[in-house]
Amino acid sequence: MATTGSEYDLVVRGGTVIDGTGAERFSADVAVKDGVIVGVGKVSGRGREELDASGALVTPGFVDIHTHYDGQATWSNRMAPSSHHGVTTVVMGNCGVGFAPVRPTDHDLLIELMEGVEDIPGVVLREGVPWAWESFPEYLDYLSERQFDMDIGAQLPHAALRVYVMGQRGADREPATAEDIAEMRRLTAEAIRSGAMGFSSSRTLNHRSSKGAPTPSLTAEFDEMVGIANGLKDAGSGVMEMISDFGDLSGEFELLEDMVAASGRPMSISLAQGLSPNGWRQILDRIDQASSRGHEMRGQVAPRPIGILFGLTASLTPFTGRPSYMAIAGLPVAEKLERMLAPELRAKILSEPVSPGFEGLFKRMDGGRKLWELGDPPDYEPSPEMSIAARAERAGADPWSYAYDLLLANEGRGMLYSPFANYADGNLDCCREMLLAENTVPGLGDGGAHVGIISDASFVTTLLAHWGRDRSRGETIPLEVLVKRQSRDTARAVALSDRGVLAPGMKADINLIDFENLRVRAPEMVADLPSGGVRLEQRADGYLATIVSGRVTYRNGEATDALPGRLIR
For the chain, what is the domain count? Predict the structure, then answer.
């Protein structure tokens, strides 16, 4: 409803406010003027636009600090899937990969790295990324001219920085010289002063280019890492984001804490339960000890399993690599479905052994005991009784034959789900413990990445709906705590103090949520990337309105014409 002669630009009327501080919910109006909240309580003046929030929750806009929209932000105004989950601020450039700084001769190298590490097709990046920059400040200048459906912050990625300074020596992971380190330190300070939110790096063997080469930052030595950290010290601001295998827990953590000590700047570290049920607790204990020494460190944690999606529309199936399936893998889904329905091909695919290179993936599914059908709405805490192996046994069928038939369901759009992190115990108790830990924040959703096998940008909605309402296999978490974690706490983790709380003087990023009907939908493939590339999209129900800087960007899940989001600088 719009009115004339208004005192405010926007008034949200009569909602139940969860303000992001962790305080108990309360009934109030929220008034906005010039993109800023100017009143929370009983607002008597009128708004140029008014939204009726009766029966709805009113929360801050959500801040997602772990995304990979580095390419998408250069060709698209909309940061989907995050847009569909009440997210009003994202931070990209995580895990040490990105597209600046870069010399013209190294475009393909950075594309191959992003393709391998984050599963974004190289053809999409080659057509979509305009490369209208070389330095990181020039990359920020390019982004600052664009408009988005949310605010975007960018981090300086270590892999790009290392290759820019060292050339092929950097890509080959040779030790950096003192001159190399001095230049990386200078460029880091330059990037932070020009508006970068921080610096990120990867030290995990899981991160490889599309050609199989480890990420350039994998074995960067102490002097290089601390030298770069000193670049943040020189600039006097910025945060650090890291991922590591922690093969040598003591030595590796000592390095990371030394970076925090040298820079005086905060660091967040990817934290998840792997195949070892309790290994994550050792890392969290180190984070707690460092924080007690005054070194600000946090674990970035997920609210559900991190897992691979299998389907005829996805990049992988349980039969990927088998010769008879690979012969038809590139066909359109309808044609692939028709071929796979033929009894002869079905029998042939099922009879073939697992191909070299896919043994680890096949072993991870544990004979179908670690594989589930992903329904609509998806169940991200499935019971052992609903695994493919258990269902097949009850049906008197072979697990892989059973899985084959499920893939063909719904005109070939059926999907299976195999968690590889946070599900070693067959439940999400570890996630609850991580979410409630003092020195953690929600993260790891990877919006914009893993476009064919993972769809975790919907973490935000799972956090609220599953943990705040739906969980049946254990304890839930108060909604006030969850909102605080995903708004105020994530904003503070990246040194943003102007958002994440509904209070006068704060940025007017707001969600109106029909909480009873809030749910994550099943992921689906859409073909909206450059060059006709496909990606997993995942929407949600229950978001009545999302507001960025006082302007409504989404109503009932559908985009408006408003693009008030800008580069955070």
Answer: 3
How many Cα atoms within 13 Å fall on the side-chain side of residue 491? 25
HSE-CB at 48 with a 13 A cutoff on CA atoms is: 9
Give the span between the Cα atoms of 462 and 466, in whole angstroms: 5
To the nearest 10°, report the CA torsion of 112, 306, 452, 365. 110
Q: Please list the pLDDT of the chain residue by residue as tens digits (569 residues).
A: 545 568 999 999 999 999 999 999 999 999 999 999 999 999 999 999 999 999 999 999 999 999 999 999 999 999 999 999 999 999 999 999 999 999 999 999 999 999 998 889 999 999 999 999 999 999 999 999 999 999 999 999 999 999 999 999 999 999 999 999 999 999 999 999 999 999 999 999 999 999 999 999 999 999 999 999 999 999 999 999 999 999 999 999 999 999 999 999 999 999 999 977 789 999 999 999 999 999 999 999 999 999 999 999 999 999 999 999 999 999 999 999 999 999 999 999 999 998 888 888 889 999 999 999 999 999 999 999 999 999 999 999 999 999 999 999 999 999 999 999 999 999 999 999 999 999 999 999 999 999 999 999 999 999 999 999 999 999 999 999 999 999 999 999 999 999 999 999 999 999 999 999 999 999 999 999 999 999 999 999 999 999 999 999 999 999 999 999 999 99
499 within some domain: no
Task: Report, in angstroms and rounded to the nearest whole number, the Rg of the chain calculated over CA atoms.
Answer: 24
* Residue 432 and residue 552 in one domain: no
Q: Please give the structure tokens belonging to residue 14.
A: 């009569």
Helix (H) or strand (E) holding 270: strand 267-270
> How does DSSP classify residue 254?
H
Tokens of 384: 């052992």
Give yes or no: residues 361 and 402 share one domain.
Answer: yes
Range of the domain at 49: 8-60+507-559
Containing 503, the helix (H) or strand (E) segment is none
**Exposed, middle or buried: residue 208 (CB in 10 Å: 0-12, 13-18, 19+)?**
middle
Contacts (Cβ under 8 Å, ≥6 apart) of 410: none
347, two tokens: 């029998």
Which tokens belong to 436? 């409630």
Distance CA 310, CA 48 (A): 48
Rounded Cα distance between 296 and 288, Å, is 9
